[in-house]
Fold:
Amino acid sequence: MRRRLALLVAATTSVVLLAFALPLGLLVSRAAFSSAVSDATRESQTLVSFITSGASLADAKGLARQRALQAPGLSIRVTQASGEAAPRETTLLSTPGGGRVLQQPVVGAGTTYVITTEITQARLREGVHRAWLVLGLLGLVLVGLSLLVADRLAHTMTRPISELALTAERLGRGDLTARVQPDGPDEVREVGSALNRLAARIEELLARERESVADLSHRLRTPITALRLDADALHDKDDRERLGSDVDNLSREVDALIREARRPVREGVEARCDARSVVEDRVAFWAALAEDQGRVVELELPADPCAVRTSGADLEAALDALLGNVIAHTPDGTNFAVSLEPLPGGGCLMVVADEGSGFADNDVVRRGESRAGSTGLGLDIVRRTAMASGGDVRLSQTSAGGARVSVRLGPPVA
Structure:
């Protein structure tokens, strides 16, 4: 913006200078021309007066040489007119070299003489080059001053906008304490005030959310504790251990949910993690349950780390949702496979495929809807994680008719 304003001011100043400098330069040129012709006319009139007073031709020629020495750029001579070639009135003629010749007839002692005054081109343009140089330098100085003033003015306008952009970037990165000092034009100050109000509102909403999550944690502790007491009261040891394990898993999931919800901010565009290590860790976690259910788990990972634009916690939640769906919606003994493949442009393709009956409807990635009796939030978590990283989710079937979920995860921001 500063550059555009400087170019605009420079162009405007140049046009104004040209509008004034060109006529002024032409006026200087005409003034120099008129001054040279006036000097030649004055010198010629001096000789006219000398000749009409009765001076001889020789005396007139001597005076002409003397006057020419005192008038640089002028060449004066007196000749006797010869017949019809003598001009009848004063004339101003052009010469091939760009000069002028002033011819003036005069009658003295019954004889007609011609006073010829040659004006050189340098005499006609005397002082013109200097005047153009002064005008050019003055124009450069004025353009320079206008650019300096424009730059200072643009700085006062762009600095508040730059601060707005910086504050917005800090807010985007999760620094909710970022505020801007409203400054600059009225419109920019209004935008700054609105941005501060928006940041304050976001901070207020997050504070309320944290309070709600804190209340939720206390409200969930009581029924979980009751379930644990009921499980401990069972007489059958196997049932007691099984229900106790389920309650422990439920408690861990609630704790993880609360921690996730109470994160002050999400990582946003700067989030990144190594998808290879996350996938390896989560598959190892689910492998124990899969083994208990008689499932075979195939894992295919790249040899090198695979960086993606999402946090480790978000990727864990997405993969847990996919593997949890496999465990919950396929019979025991149904095998599944997880693979991770680097993409040519950066990022990774994560695929979870099972040997079950597949999807009844491929359009199941909709929040709150499910054809299998669940809440429908699992695949929505996967979708949101993929889209936040710059990728997408595609559902298809394997060659054996099982479900196949392909999650494309974008590369981290450089």
User: Anything to note?
Assistant: Residues 2-52 form the longest helix (51 residues). The CA atoms of residues 10 and 138 lie 14 Å apart.
